[in-house]
Amino acid sequence: MSANSVKKCEETMETRKIVSGKLGEIEFAETDIITLSAPVLGFPDLSDFILISNDKSYPFLWFQSVQDVNICFILVEPDIFFPYYKPTLNKRELKILGAEGEKDIKLFGIVVVPDQPKNATVNLRAPLALNMEKKLAKQIILEDDKWQIKSPLFPKQD
What's the CA gap between 11 and 29, in Å, rounded? Predict the structure, then answer.
């Protein structure tokens, strides 16, 4: 076996491909996988995801399941649309995510886009908390009821 064939074999083991129902073919490294410490509500069997961003969809990101190619969440950083969104995470949640403090965590809201995109909503009550350094994530249910599950993403226009 030549050195070239060994190198090619190693490269194949490090990268994977999936064909997403929404995004088409995606190639990613095993190190890109973000593991959920607890499943997203309603999706009990899914724990491995990859976060995908591109200039065309900014400020929206894709949270693509590696286990089910038909499951892909749209995420947004809530403070882009809601500058006052600064929920506090409890110490237990930070510990589960391997974080020393809130500075280690990035919050994302899961977006729901109905038939009329202008009526899109974001879940501010149960954000997805990600520790990007440790590649750990968890959907957190906030105790503060001022945050809504279906917060309109775009202001109503008369």
Answer: 10
Using one digit for the tens of pLDDT, what is the confidence trace for 7-48?
A: 343 445 578 999 998 899 999 999 999 999 998 989 999 999
Q: 10 Å Cβ neighbour count for 20?
A: 19
- Reported residue count of the chain is 158
Show the domains of the chain with their CATH numbers: 9-152 (2.30.290.10)
Closest C-alpha among 136, 147, 32 to residue 78: 147
Distances, alpha carbon 104 to alpha carbons 27, 61, 131, 137, in Å: 27, 19, 6, 12
Q: How far apart are CA 158 and CA 155, in angstroms?
A: 10
Cβ neighbors of 29 (< 8 A, separation 6 or more) are: 14, 15, 16
